[in-house]
Amino acid sequence: MTEKMTKETFLEKVFNFEKNKEWKFEGDTPCFIDFYADWCGPCKTIAPLLEQLSEEYAGKIKIYKVDTEAEQELAAAFAIRSIPSMLFCPMDGEPQMAQGALPKAELERIIKVVLGVEK
Q1: What separation in angstroms does the CA of 63 have from each of 19, 20, 88, 91?
Q2: Domain ranges in the chain?
Q3: What is the strand order of the sheet 96-99 is part of?
Q4: 8 Å CB contact between 50 and 65
Q5: Does the domain formed by 3-113 have CATH 3.40.30.10?
Q6: Of 4, 3, 117, nearest in space to 61 by CA
Q7: Residue positions annotated with a catalytic role
Q8: Model confidence over 33-84: pLDDT tens digits?
Protein backbone atom coordinates (compact mmCIF):
# COMPACT_ATOMS: atom_id res chain seq x y z
CA MET A 1 0.00 0.00 0.00
CA THR A 2 1.32 3.43 -0.88
CA GLU A 3 1.72 5.89 1.98
CA LYS A 4 1.06 9.62 1.86
CA MET A 5 3.99 11.61 3.12
CA THR A 6 4.35 15.01 4.75
CA LYS A 7 7.52 17.02 5.08
CA GLU A 8 7.92 15.69 8.63
CA THR A 9 7.64 12.03 7.62
CA PHE A 10 9.91 12.67 4.62
CA LEU A 11 12.62 14.11 6.89
CA GLU A 12 12.30 11.06 9.17
CA LYS A 13 11.96 8.23 6.61
CA VAL A 14 13.79 9.42 3.50
CA PHE A 15 16.19 12.37 3.80
CA ASN A 16 16.59 15.08 6.41
CA PHE A 17 17.61 17.92 4.10
CA GLU A 18 17.37 20.42 6.94
CA LYS A 19 20.10 18.63 8.90
CA ASN A 20 22.26 17.13 6.12
CA LYS A 21 23.70 18.87 3.07
CA GLU A 22 24.92 15.60 1.52
CA TRP A 23 22.41 12.87 0.62
CA LYS A 24 21.89 10.42 3.48
CA PHE A 25 19.03 7.95 3.10
CA GLU A 26 17.18 7.58 6.41
CA GLY A 27 15.01 4.60 5.46
CA ASP A 28 15.38 0.89 6.16
CA THR A 29 13.98 -0.21 2.78
CA PRO A 30 14.60 1.18 -0.74
CA CYS A 31 11.76 3.45 -1.76
CA PHE A 32 10.42 5.76 -4.35
CA ILE A 33 8.38 8.87 -3.91
CA ASP A 34 5.64 9.90 -6.31
CA PHE A 35 5.29 13.70 -6.40
CA TYR A 36 1.72 14.27 -7.59
CA ALA A 37 -1.32 16.58 -7.44
CA ASP A 38 -5.00 15.65 -7.18
CA TRP A 39 -5.86 17.66 -10.32
CA CYS A 40 -3.16 15.98 -12.45
CA GLY A 41 -4.57 13.57 -15.07
CA PRO A 42 -1.37 11.51 -15.59
CA CYS A 43 -0.97 11.27 -11.79
CA LYS A 44 -4.47 9.76 -11.52
CA THR A 45 -3.66 7.38 -14.37
CA ILE A 46 -0.60 5.87 -12.65
CA ALA A 47 -2.04 5.81 -9.10
CA PRO A 48 -3.56 2.29 -9.49
CA LEU A 49 -0.28 1.06 -11.01
CA LEU A 50 1.66 2.35 -8.00
CA GLU A 51 -0.77 0.55 -5.66
CA GLN A 52 -0.24 -2.64 -7.69
CA LEU A 53 3.56 -2.29 -7.52
CA SER A 54 3.42 -1.66 -3.76
CA GLU A 55 1.60 -4.99 -3.36
CA GLU A 56 3.90 -6.88 -5.75
CA TYR A 57 7.02 -5.56 -4.00
CA ALA A 58 5.60 -5.63 -0.45
CA GLY A 59 8.40 -5.89 2.10
CA LYS A 60 11.04 -5.15 -0.56
CA ILE A 61 10.38 -1.48 -1.36
CA LYS A 62 8.16 1.30 -0.05
CA ILE A 63 6.19 3.63 -2.26
CA TYR A 64 5.37 7.04 -0.87
CA LYS A 65 3.21 9.80 -2.32
CA VAL A 66 3.78 13.53 -1.83
CA ASP A 67 0.97 15.94 -2.69
CA THR A 68 2.85 18.86 -4.24
CA GLU A 69 -0.02 21.25 -3.46
CA ALA A 70 -0.03 20.44 0.26
CA GLU A 71 3.76 20.00 0.56
CA GLN A 72 5.08 22.89 -1.52
CA GLU A 73 8.29 23.23 0.50
CA LEU A 74 9.12 19.57 -0.11
CA ALA A 75 8.38 19.89 -3.84
CA ALA A 76 10.58 23.00 -3.99
CA ALA A 77 13.43 21.23 -2.17
CA PHE A 78 13.59 18.74 -5.07
CA ALA A 79 12.88 21.34 -7.78
CA ILE A 80 9.72 19.56 -8.91
CA ARG A 81 8.64 21.42 -12.05
CA SER A 82 6.40 18.82 -13.67
CA ILE A 83 4.26 16.05 -12.26
CA PRO A 84 4.21 13.20 -11.89
CA SER A 85 7.86 13.12 -10.87
CA MET A 86 9.35 10.18 -9.00
CA LEU A 87 12.38 10.09 -6.76
CA PHE A 88 13.98 6.63 -6.54
CA CYS A 89 16.02 6.14 -3.34
CA PRO A 90 18.31 3.08 -3.11
CA MET A 91 19.73 1.98 0.24
CA ASP A 92 23.22 3.04 -0.92
CA GLY A 93 24.12 5.57 -3.54
CA GLU A 94 22.49 8.66 -4.93
CA PRO A 95 18.76 8.96 -5.60
CA GLN A 96 17.54 9.32 -9.17
CA MET A 97 14.60 11.29 -10.52
CA ALA A 98 12.24 10.26 -13.31
CA GLN A 99 9.44 12.34 -14.80
CA GLY A 100 6.15 11.50 -16.41
CA ALA A 101 3.61 8.70 -16.17
CA LEU A 102 5.98 5.82 -16.81
CA PRO A 103 4.66 2.42 -17.93
CA LYS A 104 4.87 -0.53 -15.54
CA ALA A 105 7.73 -2.20 -17.43
CA GLU A 106 9.87 0.95 -17.12
CA LEU A 107 9.07 1.32 -13.41
CA GLU A 108 10.02 -2.33 -12.86
CA ARG A 109 13.29 -1.77 -14.77
CA ILE A 110 14.11 1.25 -12.58
CA ILE A 111 13.23 -0.69 -9.41
CA LYS A 112 15.63 -3.44 -10.52
CA VAL A 113 18.48 -1.21 -11.79
CA VAL A 114 18.34 1.79 -9.44
CA LEU A 115 16.90 0.24 -6.27
CA GLY A 116 18.53 -3.15 -6.82
CA VAL A 117 15.32 -5.01 -6.04
CA GLU A 118 13.90 -8.04 -7.87
CA LYS A 119 10.34 -9.30 -7.54
Answers
A1: 23, 23, 9, 14
A2: 3-113
A3: 3-4, 62-67, 31-36, 85-89, 96-99
A4: yes
A5: yes
A6: 117
A7: 40, 43
A8: 999 999 999 999 999 999 999 999 999 999 999 999 999 999 999 999 999 9
